[in-house]
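Example 3.2
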Amino acid sequence: TLGDGVVVGPVFFVAGFINLKKLSPEEYEIIKEWLETPLDFEKIKNKAEKFVALFSDNDRWVYVSDAKIFEEKLGAETIIIQNRGHFTEDDGQETLPELLSLFGIIKNKV
């Protein structure tokens, strides 16, 4: 938890979620704390200069439609990348050049 008046630089979400799909009971138990904890979006929104959320159009866990929630609730810039799964090595992802590019763009603006 960040203290009052503390604002951080850009926050990047990669495969960030509000809802998840296809969870077995065992998987739900592992992640239920995150799913069942209410989020105070107004408080969160005021804690960062900028939010950027990256989604894949074929993520097996995260609904790409959650991008709209990030946009509406946090004012996030959302980027939907084609065919990257959940951005893991199992999905063939060892690097995420789109994210590295964003770091460079943000750095130059600060």
